[in-house]
Design brief:
The protein is α/β, with parallel strands linked by helices. The chain has one domain (2-194): NAD(P)-binding Rossmann-like Domain (Rossmann fold, 3-Layer(aba) Sandwich), CATH 3.40.50. Helices cover 42% and strands 18% of the residues. It is built from 6 helices and 7 strands. The chain has helices at 11-20, 43-53, 76-97, 123-142, 158-163, 174-186, and strands spanning 2-6, 25-30, 36-37, 56-61, 101-110, 148-152, 193-194. A 7-stranded parallel β-sheet has the order 3-2-1-4-5-6-7, with helices on both faces. The longest helix is centred in the middle third of the chain and has 22 residues, at 76-97.
Length: 196
């Protein structure tokens, strides 16, 4: 199966590519240095990506970012940035995938643990993560029979914690998280909100 992987060069994207490559053709997508270029905050860029890539069996998105700061330091622009980059980027990815994903294929989005377990500084991220999860469930209902839509909430990834100087033992290995994305791609579920 041809799998379009958006956000392919991060810790999680690299782990997903590694777990998929033995059985699938992985097409990497990111702002730079990939098989195809895409800017999730620009719908025209998403359309152009699909026009370049053609039909795929699945799309996985681990791209997108949001601002993490205490609420009294977040500006309107910080919230707009977060909504455009991570939430609307993934919403538009699903919308633009219609007609480009093979019958029975899927789009798997990424939420995050801060939707369920917010912390100081996470208000923008928590909004976005909860929005992605709600959208994925609603889209799965509307697109039933056309396209499967699932979301993964990876939690804290060990390798990311280590890169931030935190205790990596408090996280989940990227390879274990990648296996959840693989199940979403290869399975038959839709509307699922999976956690490793």
């Amino acid at each position: 199966m041809r799998v379009l992987l958006v956000g392919a060069h991060g810790v999680l994207g690299s782990a997903i590519a590694q777990v998929l490559r033995p059985a699938h053709e992985v097409i990497s997508a990111s702002r730079t240095g990939s098989d195809v270029s895409v800017d999730l905050s620009d719908k025209a860029s998403i359309v152009a990506m699909f026009d370049t890539v053609g039909s795929v069996g699945a799309v996985v998105c681990v791209g997108g970012t949001a601002k993490f700061q205490p609420i009294d330091r977040l500006t309107d622009d910080d919230y707009a940035f977060s909504l455009a980059k991570k939430l609307m980027g993934q919403v538009n990815l699903v919308r633009c995938a219609i007609g480009h994903v093979d019958a029975g294929g899927s789009v798997t989005l990424t939420s995050g643990t801060l939707a369920q377990q917010p912390m100081i500084g996470s208000s923008a991220v928590s909004i976005v993560n909860a929005g992605v999860k709600g959208f994925a469930r609603a889209a799965a209902l509307e697109l039933q029979g056309t396209l499967r839509v699932n979301v993964v909430s990876p939690g804290w990834v060990s390798e990311m914690l280590a890169s931030m100087g935190k205790d990596a033992s408090q996280g989940i290995a990227a390879a274990d998280v990648a296996a959840v994305y693989k199940r979403a791609i290869e399975g038959s579920m839709t509307g699922s909100a999976a956690r490793p």
